[in-house]
User: What shape does this take?
Amino acid sequence: MADPVTEFEDLSRFIVNENHFRKKDLSIKPQAFFPNKAGETSVFRKSGLSNGAIWDIAHSVAQQLDKTLFGRADIRVSDVIEQGLSVEPDEPPEKHANIVGWPQEESDKAKRMIIGLKLAAASRPIFLQSTS
Assistant: This one.
């Protein structure tokens, strides 16, 4: 069983969709953090991993999804918690977690957008050279 996620950890959200970032300035769009239909946003915990190991996981995830890896958006767990969300371990695969607690009602679209905007603004984009 995975260790509980702490507020001091860093996470990576892998960017595998072109509509999750702006090509002109490589900034992250709020959609990059939006939850899936199950109300979760897939992320990976960075603690204990080298930069190379994080990229290895990112490439593996993109390959499993049959998508192109453009980069990643790194964010602190504390920034997620600040938005009223939480991060729960969800292994396997190792180091996988989900951002949970998103407003789920159809009428909550604006709330999800605001949270997505704040998470995108708090994240640090790191892109592969071949993104342009």
